[in-house]
């Protein structure tokens, strides 16, 4: 049997686009002699449609697309993913399903049993878990078909009482196929290889695993579809962050047609770079936009976002706006201009001194001659927000937010000012990672000016201001934030690890107190195992410290 693995980029709810892409791939695979083409989880509607699943018309369109795909599936078979209606009165209205289609007909329907309900996943909100499992017979082979989580370790979740593969293994299948929507995190590829390989060793079966690629707002899918032998050895791997169609033959349990690609994971920073570029690109293309605007300060964060945007969208589609104030240093303006010259992107210089002076004058009677403080600092940040949003409104640019995860964590940002934006590019990237990304961008020559990298970071909202005036050293701050946010360590655990007690309590208080700001922040491109947003849900009003 010749099997094609189709690793594609879908658009949520764009049924014409997704259906055409699947059918075109079917025709291409058929022309190259494939017997079976395997597509990813929920490929018909894309993952995850969230509350679109509550609209009956959405489900009807999924079924209509499946019929069109079946009609095109002549002389070949395919596996597609889609939500289907639960015919039973009890339980949820839908299943997360896979159709096995052969010669124009749906021959088998496989429903997902183990519904993830953690981090960015919320499948149990919509789907009924399956309880019945049966292998698929095709061209003399018996296939154990599962959907994503159904092939992962069920012991981590007490909700999971049935193992689909344990049931399917009783029918003595010849090999496994798993269709998935497995989001990217910089540490997830190694975990994925380990878990799937363990399943092959456990059941003594080869495995074809198909993931999708592409960004759906903040969630990024990295592809990296995999092929294993029955001993759990990784035989082949599809490229990361790229669409791919690859062919294999399986005969008497042996897999042929391998590209002999051995898993050699890229380092975390390279993966994060590739994910962010794809995240920006897909956010714009899938939303129907092409041009971005951002405030460019001369600092490292905005410089990095500008460079990533230019790579994703083309430098001609990026507008950098320099907005010097009376506290902006000459070198910051020059650093920003040097970056613009290196990238070849558009730019405007719009000073905010007159605007902030007007606000200061307007507010003076209300402020009653109180001393300069954060109120005046934030007026500057909000003046900049007004400028970049004006550029967005006037020219149809989409505003990119430039705040990093360290700032977002402790609330070091101004609501309706530098926290404005349609999408946050670095909101899941710690400041220490920002520096590493800047060096990666410069790996083949200087793009981000060296001075932007080496100078002490500053918001430049008052004379001589530095981030270190308000925040701990970023090396210490990020280490504590990582343990608290990603690893969920408590203050007592952090102190026992050797971190200074006063520092720990100060930082954790800042994180908790800034929750109200994060609730109003733009969506954040997710690149870590625990990003702010849908995967980390905290109350705003709470006493827990």
How would you describe this protein?
With about 550 residues, this protein is of the alpha/beta class. Helix content is about 35%, strand content about 20%. α10 (about 405-410) links the parallel β19 and β20 (about 425). The protein has helices spanning about 15-30, 55-70, 165-170, 190-205, 270-285, 300-315, 330-345, 355-365, 375-395, 405-410, 430-440, 450-455, 475-485, 490-495, 500-515, 515-520, and strands at about 1-5, 35-40, 75-85, 95-100, 105-110, 135-140, 140-145, 175-180, 205-210, 215, 220, 225-230, 235, 245-250, 255, 290-295, 320, 345-350, 400, 425. The radius of gyration is 26 Å and the shape is elongated.
Q: What tags apply to this protein structure?
A:
alpha/beta; 16 helices; seven-stranded mixed beta sheet; 545 residues
Q: Beta-sheet strand percentage?
A: 15-25%
* Helix amount: 25-40%
Strands of the widest sheet, in order across it, are 5-4-3-2-1-14-15
Residue stretches low in confidence (pLDDT < 50, at least 5 long) are: none
Mean pLDDT: 93
**Overall geometry:** elongated
Largest sheet features? 7 strands, mixed
Number of helices: 16
Summarize the structure.
This protein is 37% helix and 18% strand. The chain has helices at 15-31, 56-72, 164-169, 188-203, 268-287, 300-313, 330-343, 353-367, 374-395, 405-410, 431-441, 450-454, 474-486, 491-496, 501-513, 515-518, and strands spanning 2-7, 36-38, 77-85, 94-102, 105-111, 136-138, 141-147, 175-179, 207-210, 213-216, 219-222, 226-228, 234-237, 244-251, 254-256, 292-295, 318-322, 346-349, 398-401, 423-424.
């Amino acid at each position: 049997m010749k099997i094609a693995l189709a690793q594609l980029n879908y658009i949520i709810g764009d049924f014409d686009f997704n259906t055409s892409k699947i059918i075109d791939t079917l025709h291409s695979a058929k022309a190259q002699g494939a017997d079976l083409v395997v597509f990813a989880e929920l490929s018909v509607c894309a993952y995850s449609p969230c509350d679109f699943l509550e609209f009956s018309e959405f489900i009807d369109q999924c079924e209509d697309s499946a019929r069109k795909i079946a009609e095109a599936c002549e002389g070949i078979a395919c596996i597609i993913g889609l939500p289907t209606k639960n015919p039973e009165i009890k339980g949820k209205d839908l299943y997360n399903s896979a159709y096995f289609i052969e010669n124009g007909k749906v021959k088998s329907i496989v429903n997902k049993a183990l519904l993830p309900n953690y981090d960015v996943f919320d499948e149990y909100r919509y789907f009924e878990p399956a309880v019945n499992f049966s292998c698929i017979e095709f061209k003399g082979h018996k296939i154990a078909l599962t959907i994503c989580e159904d092939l992962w370790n069920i012991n981590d979740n007490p909700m999971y009482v049935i193992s689909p593969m344990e049931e399917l293994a009783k029918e003595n299948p010849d090999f496994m196929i798993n269709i998935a929507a497995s989001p990217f995190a910089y540490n997830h590829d190694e975990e994925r290889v380990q878990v799937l390989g363990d399943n092959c060793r456990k059941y003594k079966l080869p495995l074809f695993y198909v993931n999708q690629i592409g960004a759906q707002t903040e969630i990024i899918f990295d592809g990296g579809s995999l092929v294993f032998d029955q001993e759990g050895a990784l035989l082949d791997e599809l490229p990361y962050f790229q669409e791919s169609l690859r062919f294999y033959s399986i005969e008497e349990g042996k897999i042929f047609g391998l590209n002999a690609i051995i898993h050699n994971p890229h380092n975390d920073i390279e993966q994060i770079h590739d994910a962010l570029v794809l995240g920006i690109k897909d956010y714009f293309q899938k939303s129907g936009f092409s041009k971005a605007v951002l405030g460019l300060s001369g600092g490292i964060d905005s410089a990095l976002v500008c460079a990533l945007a230019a790579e994703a969208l083309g430098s001609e589609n990026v507008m950098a706006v320099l907005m010097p104030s009376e506290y902006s240093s000459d070198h910051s303006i020059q650093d920003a201009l040097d970056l613009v010259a290196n990238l070849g992107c558009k730019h405007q210089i719009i000073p905010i001194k007159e605007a902030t002076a007007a606000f200061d004058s307007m507010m003076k009677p209300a402020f009653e001659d109180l001393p300069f403080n954060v109120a005046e600092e934030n007026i500057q940040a909000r003046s900049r927000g007004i400028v970049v949003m004006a550029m967005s409104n006037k020219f149809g640019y989409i505003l990119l937010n430039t705040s990093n995860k360290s700032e977002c964590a402790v609330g070091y940002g101004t609501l309706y000012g530098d926290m404005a934006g349609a999408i946050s590019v670095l909101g899941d990237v710690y400041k220490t990672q920002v520096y590493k990304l800047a060096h990666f961008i410069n790996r083949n020559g200087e793009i981000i000016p060296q001075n932007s990298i080496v100078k002490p970071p500053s918001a430049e909202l008052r004379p001589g201001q530095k981030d270190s005036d308000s925040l701990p050293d970023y090396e210490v701050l990020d280490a504590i934030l990582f343990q608290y946010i990603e690893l969920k360590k408590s203050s007592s655990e952090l102190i026992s690890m050797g971190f200074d007690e006063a520092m720990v309590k100060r930082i954790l208080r800042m994180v908790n107190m800034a929750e109200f700001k994060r609730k109003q922040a733009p969506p954040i491109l997710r690149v870590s195992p625990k990003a702010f947003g849908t995967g980390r849900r905290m109350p705003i009003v709470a006493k827990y410290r």
